[in-house]
Design brief:
The complex is a heterodimer of chains A (485) and B (104). Helices cover 38% and strands 13% of the residues of chain A. Chain A is of the alpha/beta class and 485 residues long. The chains are: A alpha/beta (485), B alpha+beta (104).
């Protein structure tokens, strides 16, 4: 059986024509997870019973003529999304035994659409990391080379979709955590506009940057799933009430005359020359399709990493103050007093990278440093945002590599936080500006995949998906599968 | 500006984290490197000239597209889920969360 090689668009047709049932499909993917998860470690929790019950219900709905577009299709959720009554760990010892008391909006929307949750995927602890090496539940392996990282923080979701253990998986992106692992694992990863997808029930890391999104085999599948995920939510005060188009309706539009901007700062020194060559090939492909290529400048690019490493830790230090051992999550044994309860719970419950970021955040927000670091970073954030505003006055989308290099080896950057932080150099500014971005497969360097990033204007996901889909109609990088899975 | 292990210990206390001496030394090193990295922001000119040629600072950007906070009617919308929420706490009694004794 090769159901796993099919896209969601194909599986939808097979379910509709009753060539296969949702129970069969779900069993097929559960069997693949059981077979390959010991190698990849991409799942923290496998929700077999829930999945089979949901699949059975989906089949009944179909038999009763009540099936929707995506009824019965399995997917996996990053373990940052709360799932009612099901372990939600966020990759941390702090939440290792946390049974969320409600569903995240994203989870309930997919449930309502009749989709079947296979399990919860591994991730960097509290989404802080670019290699999935900070998870309390161990490293996730890259299916293209198990000695290499899958990227992070949504590394489990990316590896699961790349190895076809799930047709799709959710992710979150604060500085590149969807696009970077999508690139390193040869799949499609979409980070929508800030406020497009509800953050309710999505465990907070840096609230002004976090945004939920999706991993799929194709841009078409991403469009199908964004149709479900996107939309206003009362329960998220940063959710934006903006019309949701049918993202699949414009996929086949011609891109003749489309203006694509190439930011010269994204093609400079740090870029691996072989990656650069593949991106040039992709640009030529777009020219063939009638796009107009134009060089642009995002002059404050080099500042996005330092701005991010002030703002994200600052927001994380206040968001993670809630883990105090009182209301939920880990609690240390035999606290002597309240201070001891707080300090030991947090020291024992958080891993190294999380502590490092909490301390940076605490420092930059502390009296005497707030103006110099935090406000300064927010002023520069405006400059970075304005660079993009300026750029989108002359181009429709921006094209760049997703990462400067293909996947790196385990341990390579773990003791050098700054070199790890710089692996997100091309993705971070997009979060600071709140823009949508997508990474799609664009070739291989030494058998390791690399990604092409497309950045759109605010709420322009439909255009991004259209531009990505057109590329995928004329290339087959996204159809390459890792051997052994 | 490099941080000393003593300063790291102070920051850790503010963040309610206990660190061993070795950790203080390790973090002093790493945090100093990160601070040096973000110091480059100080080189950036964030002053603007207004129309009347007065200089003022560029406004900090807190929300990526300057959206204002939405408000809702001040009405009760939540149901009481105390029991459900307290079930996942380590220690509760009579509907209250228990912590070590604070007042003698």
């Amino acid at each position: 059986m090769t159901h796993h090689t099919k896209t969601i668009a194909n599986l939808r047709d097979e379910l509709a024509s009753k060539k296969i049932s949702s129970v069969e499909l779900t069993q097929h993917f559960l069997a693949r997870i059981k077979k390959h998860n010991p190698t990849l470690n991409s799942f923290i929790t496998i929700t077999e019973e829930h999945a089979l019950a949901a699949a059975k219900q989906a089949d009944q709905q179909r038999a009763a003529g009540q099936a929707g577009m995506l009824t019965g299709i399995p997917l996996a959720h990053k373990d940052i999304f709360c799932t009612d009554g099901i372990q939600t760990t966020c990759g941390s010892k702090m939440l290792a035994n946390f049974l969320a008391p409600y569903d995240a909006t994203v989870v309930s929307k997919f449930k309502q659409a009749g989709m079947v949750m296979l399990g919860k995927t591994n991730m960097d602890e509290f989404a802080m990391g670019s290699s999935n090496e900070t998870s309390y539940f161990g490293d996730v392996k890259n299916p293209w080379d198990i000695h290499c990282v899958p990227g992070g923080s949504s590394g489990g979701s990316a590896a699961a979709v790349a190895a076809q253990l799930a047709p799709a998986a959710t992710g979150t992106d604060t500085g590149g955590s969807i696009r970077q692992p999508a690139a390193l694992c040869n799949i499609t990863g979409l980070k929508p506009t800030y406020g497009r997808v509800s953050r309710y029930g999505m465990i907070a890391f840096a609230s002004s940057l976090d945004q939920g999104g999706i991993f799929t085999q194709t841009a078409e599948d991403a469009a199908l799933l964004l149709n479900v995920m996107a939309g206003f939510d009362e329960k998220d005060s940063t959710s934006v009430d903006h019309p949701v188009p049918d993202y699949t309706a414009t996929l086949t539009q011609s891109i003749k005359g489309l203006k694509i901007g190439l930011p010269k700062e994204y093609f400079s020194d740090g870029l691996n020359p072989e990656v650069a060559k593949l991106i040039q090939d992709a640009i030529k492909q777009y020219e063939k399709l009638g796009a107009i290529i134009q060089e642009i400048s995002l002059p404050n690019t080099q500042l996005s990493c330092p701005v991010y490493y002030v703002i994200a830790p600052a927001e994380c230090s206040s968001n993670l103050a809630r883990y105090d051992g009182v209301r939920y999550g880990y609690r240390c044994d035999n606290p002597t007093d309240l201070l001891d309860l707080y300090c030991r719970t947090r020291s024992e419950g958080f891993g190294r990278e999380v502590k490092r970021r909490i301390m940076i955040g605490t420092y930059v927000l502390s009296a005497g440093y707030f103006d110099a670091y935090y406000l300064k970073a927010q002023r520069v954030r405006r400059l970075i945002r304005d660079d993009f505003k300026q750029a989108f006055s002359s181009v429709d989308v921006i094209l760049s590599p997703t990462t400067p290099t293909p996947a790196f080896k385990f341990g390579e950057k773990m003791n050098d936080p700054i070199s790890m932080y710089l692996s997100d150099i091309y993705t971070i500014a997009v979060n600071l500006a709140g823009l949508p971005g997508i990474s799609i497969p664009a070739g291989f360097v030494n058998q390791l995949p690399i990604g092409l990033q497309l950045i759109g204007n605010l709420f322009d996901e439909a255009k991004l998906l259209n531009v990505a889909h057109q590329y995928q109609l004329h290339t087959d990088w996204h159809k390459r599968m890792p051997e052994g899975f | 500006m490099p941080l000393t292990p003593e300063e790291v210990s102070k920051i850790a206390h503010l963040a309610r984290l206990n660190l061993s001496h070795d950790e203080e030394v390790l973090y002093a090193n790493q945090l100093s490197g990160i601070l040096e990295f973000i110091e480059q922001l100080n080189q950036v000119d964030t002053e603007q000239k207004s129309e009347r040629q007065q200089t003022k600072q560029i406004e900090p950007l807190a929300h990526p597209f300057d959206l204002e906070q939405r408000l809702r009617d001040d009405a009760v919308t939540e149901v009481d889920l105390r029991e459900k929420y307290q079930k996942i706490a380590s220690q509760t009694e009579a509907g209250l969360y228990l912590v070590p004794q604070v007042i003698e």
